Amino acid sequence: MSDFRMSDDIQADLALAYAGFNLDVALRLPGRGVSVLLGPSGCGKTTVLRALAGLSRARGRVTVGSACWQDDAQRTWMPVHRRPIGMVFQEASLFAHLSVRSNLDYGLQRTPAGERHVTRDDAVALLGIAPLMDRRPEHLSGGERQRVAIARALLTSPRLLLMDEPLSALDTARKAEVLPFLERLNAQTGVPVVYVTHALDEAARLADHLVLMEAGRVRATGTPAALFSRLDLPLSHLDEAAAVVEATVAAHEPAYGQSRLDVHGLPLWAGLSQACVGQRVRVRVLARDVSVALSRAADSSIVNILPATVASLRDDGPDTTTLQLTLAAPEAQHNGALLLARLTRRSCEQLKLVPGQAVFAQVKGVALMG
Q1: Is-contact 72 61, C-beta < 8 A?
Q2: Which of 344, 239, 352 is nearest to 287 (CA)?
Q3: How far apart are CA 198 and CA 38, in angstroms?
Q4: 346 pLDDT more than 60
Q5: Which region, left, alpha or beta, applies to residue 222 given φ > 0 means left and ψ of -120 to 50 means alpha?
Q6: Would you say residue 234 has pLDDT above 80?
């Protein structure tokens, strides 16, 4: 596959108002990797995506690298058919009367031969759809249809791939089928992706850069590891509040069905991973699966007991407190990964927990993503 990479940022200053809703965002997205717009329904995620595509007319300015797609001050407007984008929607929107091969050829023919960066063989291999080429959409599962739709979007050789809740219409099994292909998409094509979702698991697993949206505004931007663990953001208030931790596979122990991960020099045991030793992985640790102790228990059934520091605390009512913990080996000279712990207020008061205090995080569950 051609090494098509864009290092320049995607910038969008957009404003739009209609009955009961106001959008006002200033986005600075990296020109590589997957940027995820996360937020509840009605917060403006899809409106932003449609404005980037030119499907909705918001006021403002949009640039992708050195190319200006919109600048109202200069009366510049590039229509949607001239913007080098690929789009994938909630529904696959394939041509029902055409085979998979013909659907892909439609995408390929939209780009002159001299401007193509992705071949049909590239897209077919990347999305694993070789056995489907002679079928029509009615004979495909939901996950297969969506993989074909992604391949067709790639075959336009886009400078930017826009994805609007592409997994929301799929059941859990079909969603699990498509997610690994989405993870490989950017790494193997180099095409930057802007991905809209309200699903926490998708954002935690896919995002290189996360944009948290709320009521037509950008609430926060950063890495999933940073944003999921912030006590001042709504993500940490949810019942499924969890930290996202980057780790490296250190060893496998198939006899116990476990893999040992390395997190800034600390061992973290998780279920057996398919990743190779040395490979980077991402894990999700629920706040309710983390407890705190002042000393390391020598006779506990919990395997993951890690040195940490209380970074901050937040009272969540009369009975619950949420802690942000920084994992770090005692000799570490840098900040480690962040965890959340949800405890009772009684436990916090009995342990006299305060910011800066050295503790041990007892992690009962670690979910590998991918």
Answers
A1: yes
A2: 239
A3: 5
A4: yes
A5: left
A6: yes
Q: Residue 107: which of 145, 149, 147 has the closest Cα?
A: 149
Which residue is listed with tokens 């030119």?
54
- Helix, strand or coil, per DSSP, at residue 117: coil
pLDDT, average across residues 341-365: 95
Reported as type and span, the H/E element at residue 114 is: none
Task: Burial-class residue 193 by CB neighbours within 10 Å (0-12, 13-18, 19+).
Answer: buried
The type of residue at 219 is: R
Q: What pLDDT score was predicted for residue 187?
A: 81
**Is residue 59 within 8 Å of 53, Cβ to Cβ?**
no
Buried b vs exposed e over 291-330: b needs ≥16 C-beta within 10 Å? bbeeeeeeeeebbbbbbbbbbebeebeeeebbbbbbbbee
Give the Cβ contact number of residue 345 at 10 Å.
14
- Between CA 173 and CA 167 the distance in angstroms is 11
| pTM to 2 decimal places | 0.92
Residue 5 confidence class, pLDDT cut points 50, 70, 90 = very low
Residue 202, SS3? helix
Average pLDDT rounded to a whole number, residues 70-84? 95
Q: Which amino acid is at 14?
A: L
pLDDT at residue 335, as a whole number: 67
97: phi then psi, degrees, rounded to nearest 5? -85, 0
SS3 for 122-160, per residue? Answer: HHHHHHCCHHHCCCCHHHCCHHHHHHHHHHHHHCCCCCE
Mean per-residue pLDDT over the chain, rounded: 92
What mean pLDDT do residues 19-23 have? 91
Report the alpha-carbon distance of residue 171 to residue 315 in Å, rounded. 36
Segment 320-324 mean pLDDT: 97
Residue 82: closest CA among 104, 114, 55: 55
CA 35 to chain centroid, in Å, comes to 7
Q: Does residue 137 have a pLDDT over 90? A: yes
Q: Is the pLDDT of residue 296 over 50?
A: yes
φ and ψ at 201, to 5 degrees?
Answer: -65, -35
Instruction: With beta carbons less than 8 A apart as the criterion, state whether 361 and 327 touch.
Output: yes
